[in-house]
């Protein structure tokens, strides 16, 4: 996997993935930025959410669960001192469908956390306290 990040002046950076997709990263005005894009640490948090949500949906679909929507809300805490690394991250999944089995939703979240989500596992090994929970919303 490859990526490229190019400085575009002030605190603005343009990132390009090896697959050809681009993203703008910028800092807040008090750090010399113009607030034109996502912060790099926010991107890391979103990457974790995307990785884990991808797993949960994939596992549920392979288990023939009627999942119609899956959102993950992430809440992170960072160290006060430099480097301001993540210290805690909580992922809350909201899974919607008709007739979803709770045991399979629970297992999908556990499998993502313990086996499949490389972002979560990597951050956990680096000392970040990562927790997960879920809720199921029955669609009528």
TrEMBL record:
A Pfam family that the UniProt record links to this protein: OsmC
InterPro entries: KH_dom-like_a/b (IPR015946), OsmC/Ohr_fam (IPR003718), OsmC/Ohrsf (IPR036102)
Superkingdom classification of source: Bacteria
Protein name: Peroxiredoxin
Species the sequence originates in: Ectopseudomonas composti
